[in-house]
User: Which sequence fits this backbone?
């Protein structure tokens, strides 16, 4: 049997995701893309979708970015 397509399968990406893609399209490193999207206020699931990765990867990189930021403050 073939899979029945839903409305979501034909839907356009939300405007916020399109803006996210546009904001990071020139950045090569995943860490840089995540840093920009975090500053723009995107959530972990949205960032994972935009960067074509998993939410666990986004959490790990976001945590590392926060640690680097905290280390810079204490110096």
Assistant:
């Amino acid at each position: 049997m073939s899979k029945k397509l839903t409305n979501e399968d034909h839907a356009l990406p939300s405007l916020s995701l399109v803006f996210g893609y546009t904001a990071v399209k020139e950045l090569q490193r995943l860490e840089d893309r995540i840093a920009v999207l975090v500053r723009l206020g995107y959530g972990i699931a949205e960032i994972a979708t935009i960067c074509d990765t998993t939410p666990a990867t986004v959490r790990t990189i976001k945590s590392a970015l926060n640690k680097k930021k905290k280390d810079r403050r204490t110096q």
